[in-house]
Design goal:
Layout (H helix, E strand, L loop, with lengths): L9 E7 L4 H16 L2 E7 L2 H4 L9 H6 L2 H17 L3 H15 L6 H11 L15 H15 L7 E6 L2 E6 L9 H15 L19
Parallel strand pairs: 1-2
Antiparallel strand pairs: 1-3, 3-4
InterPro entries: Rv2466c-like, Thioredoxin-like_sf
Keywords: Isomerase
Protein name: 2-hydroxychromene-2-carboxylate isomerase
């Protein structure tokens, strides 16, 4: 490659719901991976409320409450911002929301959404979409695009990367704290190695700690 040539970055599609602390951890890892590997993350929304809407009766009360109007609000505002102001605002708004919801432990309140919109320079009027179903069809299409790649038995995040024989998609990885630098690179390389292996489905062990937002 000559000095005038620019290496093309590999697109990495990442589906998130702002509610999920584990997806937030993984997203911060992907931000690190962008610094150490030739990848470019493309952010997409999915919805835990949509994922669980047909099995709410099976969930504990705390989750049923979270996946009600409170759970719909952030993702509806993100999809509305995306539709009205372009794809490039999606990741920025997610970062502003996630930092407040998770790192600052403020939760997915309307005040948090308003603060995040202001930080990114988006109109305050977008907050009205927290209670609007105007873009729900687009939200569901985005959600289905991600979940259809990995199946209904997973949640958020979903990651999809172009492979030699088609896209390689997977749920996770679930990790805490966020790997940085070369540690982030090693996890990325290893994740792609196992995920791209034909017939590979799962590695898992019991979580012994919660997400650490360091």
């Amino acid at each position: 490659m000559t000095d005038t040539q620019v290496r093309e970055k590999t697109p990495v599609d990442f589906w998130f719901d702002p509610l999920c602390p584990w997806a937030w951890m993984t997203s911060r890892w992907m931000v690190e991976v962008e610094k150490v590997r030739d990848v470019e993350v493309r952010w997409h929304v999915m919805s835990l409320a949509v994922l669980n809407e047909n099995k709410l009766d099976e969930l504990p009360e705390v989750y049923r409450e979270l996946l009600g109007p409170k759970g719909w609000a952030p993702v509806r505002v993100v999809i509305a911002a995306q539709q009205k102001h372009g794809e490039e605002v999606t990741g920025k708004l997610y970062t502003a929301l996630g930092t407040r919801i998770h790192n600052d432990e403020k939760g997915p309140t309307r005040e948090v959404i308003a603060e995040a919109l202001a930080e990114v320079g988006l109109p305050a009027e977008l907050l009205a979409y927290a209670d609007s179903d105007e873009y729900d069809e687009v939200l569901r299409a985005s959600h289905n695009d991600g979940i259809d790649r990995v199946g209904q038995e997973v949640g958020t995040p979903v990651i999809s990367v172009p492979g030699s024989e088609g896209d390689v998609a997977f749920f996770g990885p679930v990790v805490t704290p966020t790997p940085r630098g070369e540690a982030a690179a090693r996890l990325w390389d290893g994740t792609l190695l196992v995920a791209s292996t034909p017939g590979f489905y799962e590695i898992k062990r019991t979580r012994t700690k919660g997400p650490s937002f360091e």
